Amino acid sequence: MDKQKTILAVGSIALDTLETPHGNRQDILGGSATYFSISAGLLAPVKLVGVVGNDYPEEGWQLFQSRNINTDNILVENGSTFRWGGKYSNDYSTRDTLFTELGVFENFSPTIQEADRLSPLVFLGNIHPDLQSSVAKLTPSAEYIVTDTMNLWIDLFPEKLKEVLKLSTILLINHEEAEQYTGQSEISNAASELLSAGPEIVVIKKGADGACLAQGESRHSVPVFPINQVIDPTGAGDSFAGGFMGYLSQASQPDFLEAVIVGSAMASFCVEGFGVESLLQATPTLLAHRVETIKNSMVEKV
Ligand code: AMP
Fold first, then answer.
1. Which of the residues 30, 42, 178, 217 could staple to 14 if both were Cys, CB 3.0 to 4.6 A apart?
2. Is the CB of 136 inside a 6 Å radius of any atom of ligand 1?
3. Using CA atoms, how far apart are residues 9 and 36, in angstroms rounded to an integer?
4. DSSP 8-class letter at 93
5. How many angstroms separate the CA atoms of 212 and 263, rounded?
């Protein structure tokens, strides 16, 4: 295996309150950067960029430390950590945001230590597009800038998101968001439009229906790993991104279909428990098993 490349990741570090058909949780560790770093950290060195309030629990710092996730670029500000609340429908097909409390995110201006600006892989997790752009501009020598977003930012700041897409090499987005942004309901058409906005590669995630990899004119589908029961899908997209980039960190000549398969396998751990709890049970061996299962199901389909 080649030397692993470091991933610099910006995103939200949050306390989440969740209502699901399987139960509720209050103020548990969450946020796009948290899910991403735990999953990518299984395969690669990860450095986080973000902000928390001085109410951020010790449990969170211990988690990052136990996973060797570098926190040198996380600012601690006087004020409240970002909080988000979400409620899932009975069949998990939809999710409503109950509240978004920006707290210290409101005045966040990312700072990145000089040496870390040279990180070859950069993840722009789900946060305000202006913050994503500022991190992308601070890391101009990155080989890959991989971007994620959500419906809120597409609704509020489509023009700012356009700027982020111009700076991105790879976009990871879910089907509803792709349709919302492009107005195209057909996946291949939505992918074409997103490709013309900047990224060389677009991955459209379709929840339980897998993901579509689009590069130039080519389109490939990857199924999900079949799990017994969904408990909490929060963070599945960020875990997908973590698997995807964790693979990129290890590959000198990346095969992007393989990256999507690893992303899909990683996301399957996330949804099996509340918050990060089941993601923390993942190991490289268990992940490799799920990757093989997905690959076998693709061969069977041919
Ligand atoms: P996902 O399920 O992949 O959409 O990611 C869920 C995570 O995104 C949760 O842990 C939230 O804390 C975080 N999140 C929700 N809304 C926002 C937002 N507006 N900005 C940044 N992070 C958010």
1. 30
2. no
3. 8
4. S
5. 12
The model's pLDDT over 243-272, given as tens digits with 9 standing for 90+, comes to 999 999 999 999 999 999 999 999 999 999
Ligand 1 close to Cβ of residue 100 (< 6 A): yes
Per-residue pLDDT tens for 16-64? 999 999 999 999 999 999 999 999 999 999 999 999 999 999 999 999 9
Give the global pTM: 0.96
Half-sphere exposure of 292 (CA within 13 A, CB side): 6
Q: Is the pLDDT reported for residue 280 higher than 50?
A: yes
For the record, the structure tokens of 27 come out as 């103020």
Nearest residue CA, atom 21 of ligand 1?
127
Using a 6 Å cutoff on CB, does residue 242 contact ligand 1? no
Q: Is 177 in the pocket of ligand 1 (CB under 6 A)?
A: no
- Give CA separation, 216 vs 202, 213, 222, in Å: 9, 10, 17
- Residue 33 Cα to ligand 1 middle (Å): 9
Mean pLDDT within 196-207: 97
